[in-house]
């Protein structure tokens, strides 16, 4: 059974940075794509960034140039480095594991519990 645990959320001022981590267990981590999603109050969950098993990445337009997704297969961990944070980045951020190695041909099928990110103006 897959178990995903996020950490690193918190309160930060606009322009600040946070680094989210998601550690997986119960899965062969290296063969699956991983992603970060977020959900703000009253909004649908949306893609933030995703990374293929071999490292190819894809970002939402709203975070390009500010956020970086990376993975350490030896640690079963995916990261989201968030810089130049804006109030509109405020949301619960969720880690997701995909059911395949490449995000264009697979979809998320396991989710973490989420971590709150709040950006004050």
Q: Uncertain spans, ≥5 residues at pLDDT below 50?
A: none
Task: Provide mean pLDDT, rounded.
Answer: 96
**Helical amount:** under 10%
* Radius of gyration (Å): 13 Å
- Beta-strand fraction estimate: over 45%
The succession of helices and strands, N to C, reads: EEEEEEEEEEE
Q: What distance separates the N and C termini?
A: 40 Å
Largest sheet: number of strands, sense, barrel closure? 7 strands, mixed
If helices are DSSP runs of H or I spanning 4 or more residues, what is the number of helices?
A: 0
Number of strands: 11
So what's the overall shape?
A: globular
> Structural class of the secondary structure composition?
mainly beta
Explain how this protein is built:
The chain is an all-beta fold and 121 residues long. Helix content is 0%, strand content 51%. It is built from no helices and eleven strands. Strands 2, 4, 5, 6, 9, 10 and 11 form a seven-stranded mixed beta sheet that branches. It has a four-stranded antiparallel beta sheet with strand order 1-3-8-7, with no helix packed on it. The chain is globular and about 40 Å long.
Give a summary of the structure in a few sentences.
This protein is an all-beta fold and 121 residues long. It has no helices and eleven strands. The strands form two sheets. Strands 2, 4, 5, 6, 9, 10 and 11 form a seven-stranded mixed β-sheet that branches.
């Amino acid at each position: 059974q897959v178990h995903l645990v996020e950490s690193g959320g918190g309160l930060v001022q606009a322009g600040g940075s946070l680094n989210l981590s998601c550690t997986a267990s119960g899965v062969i981590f290296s063969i699956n794509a991983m992603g970060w999603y977020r959900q703000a109050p009253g909004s649908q969950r949306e893609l933030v960034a995703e990374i293929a098993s071999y490292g190819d990445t894809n970002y939402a337009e709203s975070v390009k140039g500010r956020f970086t997704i990376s993975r350490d297969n030896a640690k079963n961990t995916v990261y989201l480095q968030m810089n130049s944070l804006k109030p509109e980045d405020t949301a619960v951020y969720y880690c997701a594991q995909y059911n395949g190695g490449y995000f264009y041909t697979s979809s998320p099928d396991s989710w973490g519990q989420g971590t709150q990110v709040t950006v004050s103006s």
